[in-house]
Amino acid sequence: MTHIPVPPPMSLLAELTHRCPLQCPYCSNPLALDGREHELTTDDWLRVLEQAAELGVLQVHFSGGEPMARRDLPDLVRRAAALGLYTNLITSGVLLTEATLAQLAEAGLDHVQLSFQDVDTAPAETMGGMPGAQEKKLAAARLIVAEGMPLTTNFVIHRGNVGRIGRMLDLAVSLGARRAEIAHTQYYGWGLVNRAALMPSRAQLEEATRAVEDARTRLAGTLAIDYVTPDYYADQPKPCMGGWGRRFVNISPTGHVLPCHAAETIKSVPIPDIRTDSLAAIWADAPLFRLFRGTDWMPEPCRGCDLREQDWGGCRCQALALLGDAAATDPVCTRSPDHARISRILADLPETPPPLVYRRYGNAPG
Amino acid sequence: MTDAPAPPPVAEDTVVRFLRGTRLQHDRVRDQWVIQAPERAFIADPIAAEILRLVDGTRPVAAIIDILAQRFAAPRPVIAHDVLEMIASLAQRQVLTA
Ligand code: SF4
Ligand code: SF4
């Protein structure tokens, strides 16, 4: 086999833990949540950071679960910063205090992405399943801005809060955020379980898009807005992770090395493990990474499609979840022979949303 | 960035600096300059890199223009035009601030 050198990843998603005080029903974590006893040690993560920097990773996103549930977070940030990695903390904010923030800032943390479930307290706390969370998040935002740390606020959108996007963005501005992410729920993991309860209608999606466009005009120069749409309503899928094994590498709390956070659902090849192999070797050679890298694996209609290097055939985990075949064209694509499945799912959305299934250890259906 | 209005002009006596959370960094592995910013890293083209390497939070834009005009033995107005345009666009992209 010829060996074309594989360009190194740009970003590492370090999922430090699945523990989290919240229980969002749209959480993108897998249904089988890793327990604390199986988590990588501090030394494991320090080694991962070194290997990542050496390989060519530029940014590390500390995520979870709630990454602040790990006491060694400041040590990991300090090492990453010393290695020249850009350090981003993706947090719910409920564990953040003046003291922990000061520690992280001193360790060299570059940026915080803080998630909100909603702009109003009652629906926010119904979604997050944690009473008192909203006030803690608002306090966290104020501390971050007072520290001078750049802040991005993240709002996950679903049918219940889609009408409040304008006000979410106003909240972001009033808190002093530089950026805001309005991200429709992605239907993997817990989001997929709760799809019927969360998916907006097409009319709601259009309303959401208008609200974002209005705010972009209204807030130009004050707030940069990233907008992530639900791909069920698109004609073409998203370039999931910028293409399989091209830009991102994800490491799970137990050390599984994955091309995307849902890739543990693919059972046809072994899951690479950072405790037994180096990041460079896994990135270049692990069967899981080679499986869908580039365009050689593609079936029709992707194979002959002129958009194949734009969206890379869409999301493998979505093809697996919806069609039972990870190597199929993502069915959200209108060119997919299975696209009717998506139309049917959308047509069958219930008038009244079913009860939410909260993201909790032991709460996964089936 | 398609709907962003044209960036406001920058005066030559302005002292620009990197916004906290952004920096210029040499990417050893790919041998290129990158701008590290919140949740994205983008490649700094050679002109942007030349300019950004002179941004130290004390130098006014005029001094950056002088240095580059000398270094590239180019007419000052030409360099000034490029530098001012680049700085205005980087300010709009939340990389630099006055
Ligand atoms: S989405 Fe909610 S439950 Fe999942 S990690 Fe984030 S805050 Fe925790
Ligand atoms: S056919 Fe494949 S490559 Fe073409 S747009 Fe659809 S998913 Fe993308």
From TrEMBL, chain A:
Per the record, the pathway is:
Cofactor biosynthesis; pyrroloquinoline quinone biosynthesis
How cofactor binds (record note)?
A: Binds 1 [4Fe-4S] cluster. The cluster is coordinated with 3 cysteines and an exchangeable S-adenosyl-L-methionine.
What InterPro entries does the entry give? 4Fe4S-binding_SPASM_dom (IPR023885), Aldolase_TIM (IPR013785), Elp3/MiaA/NifB-like_rSAM (IPR006638), MoaA_NifB_PqqE_Fe-S-bd_CS (IPR000385), PQQ_synth_PqqE_bac (IPR011843), PqqE-like (IPR017200), Radical_SAM_PqqE_MftC-like (IPR050377), rSAM (IPR007197)
What UniProt keywords apply to this chain's record, in alphabetical order?
Answer: 4Fe-4S, Iron, Iron-sulfur, Metal-binding, Oxidoreductase, PQQ biosynthesis, S-adenosyl-L-methionine
Protein's UniProt keywords contain Thylakoid: no
The Enzyme Commission number assigned here is 1.21.98.4
| Top-level taxonomic group | Bacteria
- Catalyzed reaction equations: [PQQ precursor protein] + S-adenosyl-L-methionine = E-Y cross-linked-[PQQ precursor protein] + 5'-deoxyadenosine + L-methionine + H(+)
GO biological-process terms attached to the record:
molybdopterin cofactor biosynthetic process; pyrroloquinoline quinone biosynthetic process
Q: Which Pfam families match?
A: Radical_SAM, SPASM
Question: Which top EC class is given?
Answer: oxidoreductase
The UniProt entry, under Gene3D superfamilies, shows: Aldolase class I
Please list the GO terms describing molecular function. 4 iron, 4 sulfur cluster binding; cyclase activity; iron ion binding; oxidoreductase activity; S-adenosyl-L-methionine binding
Domain (Radical SAM core): residue spans on this chain? 6-223
Binding positions for [4Fe-4S] cluster per the UniProt entry: C20, C24, C27
Essential cofactor(s): [4Fe-4S] cluster
Protein family (similarity comment)? Belongs to the radical SAM superfamily. PqqE family.
What this chain does, per the entry, is described as: Catalyzes the cross-linking of a glutamate residue and a tyrosine residue in the PqqA protein as part of the biosynthesis of pyrroloquinoline quinone (PQQ).
User: Assembly and interactions?
Assistant: Interacts with PqqD. The interaction is necessary for activity of PqqE.
- NCBIfam families, per the entry: PQQ_syn_pqqE, rSAM_more_4Fe4S
Report what the protein is called.
PqqA peptide cyclase
Q: What is the lineage of its organism?
A: Bacteria, Pseudomonadati, Pseudomonadota, Alphaproteobacteria, Acetobacterales
Automatic annotation (TrEMBL), chain B:
Which keywords are on file for this protein? PQQ biosynthesis
Cite the InterPro entries for this sequence. Answer: PQQD, PqqD_bac, PqqD_sf
Q: Name one GO biological process term.
A: pyrroloquinoline quinone biosynthetic process
For molecular function, the Gene Ontology terms on record are: quinone binding
Q: In which pathway does it act?
A: Cofactor biosynthesis; pyrroloquinoline quinone biosynthesis
Q: How does it assemble?
A: Monomer. Interacts with PqqE.
Record protein name field: Pyrroloquinoline quinone biosynthesis peptide chaperone PqqD
Q: Which organism is it from?
A: Gluconacetobacter takamatsuzukensis
Q: What is the lineage of its organism?
A: Bacteria, Pseudomonadati, Pseudomonadota, Alphaproteobacteria, Acetobacterales
